[in-house]
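INFO  loader      accepted 1 record
INFO  loader      residues=356
INFO  predictor   begin
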Amino acid sequence: MGNLIPKIKNLPLNIQDVIFSESFGDLNGELTVFMISDENRYAKIADLSVDLFAKDLKVSDLIKYLQDNWQLKPKEATAKALEIAGKRLLTFDNYFNGGVSQFIADNGGDVVDYREYVERQQQIIQEAEAEREREAEEAKKAEEPTPEDIVEDAQSELTYVESDDAEEKKWAPKLFQESLVQFFTPDEAMAIVLTDYNLVLLKLLIEDPKFKHSLESALYSNQQLLTSGQIYLKGKMVSATVANYIQDFIEKNGSSFFENIALTQYLISSENAKRLDSTDRMKLKKMLNVYRNIKFFPQAFDRIPVEQWMIIPVEDQIIDNTDQSSDQKNKSEEIILDNATPLELRALAEQKRKNK
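INFO  predictor   done
INFO  writer      dumping tokens
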């Protein structure tokens, strides 16, 4: 079959799946055309099959071809042609624009007689497609950085702050369970605090991969009210707590990693989020970002510059109001940090401390 490979490679993938399958020889062996007394019959049937699939030979010309090239009498040529059409080509009738089934009908055959062979070849195709999907998924996983890769790359770039790690690890879960909502209201002083605290959290999460489970569990049990009113969950109205919002999001989007598009879709179209005003919707967005950053750390930060890593989102706009009149504060000395990073905010915080 070696010299036929280039021609086969140009055929549709599902046809290649059958030709290159281990069962192809068995299928060919069941053709009675192999019973002709010709020592080159195996090469001939291979050439014939590929010529038919490549449409170098029309299905409608198959009977005449067998008469002229294999010296078969008309009745025998018709019988062999029907067998080849039904057992080898019928599975791909769409590829032949219905020409195979039409050929069978025109020559007194019935496509039902070849159902077994069609089903066997369809099974070969399905198994080949499943194998390709598995290989593609494995290749994708091989290309994706592991959590260890992401952390290793980040460690050399992160600037940590001094902290009592043991104490912070004890205090953080309590904060995430009982006091997290305070971080979602725009506030300059809070932003400065979060600048350093994000660096503390990053250090703890990187040095102890299991620590994130404590924070995740704290989120699931957080009963702080995140927004006003109530939300609809599992057929009843419940308090608009952090825990209930997370449960609602998971019910609608699953517990796998989610991109920003899924988050945006939830915020604008879910029953519980679309009714919120802009302030409450922003709180919900920040909280769900925290959930993602914790549950899927460090994958949530893959391909994000290290200087932009923030477990708890920080406001993009910080106002520096040191030693200025009220008008000046509001007009001339407003510092806008678009997509403010922890390091930028920390630098601002350091400057503010020096000016006090």
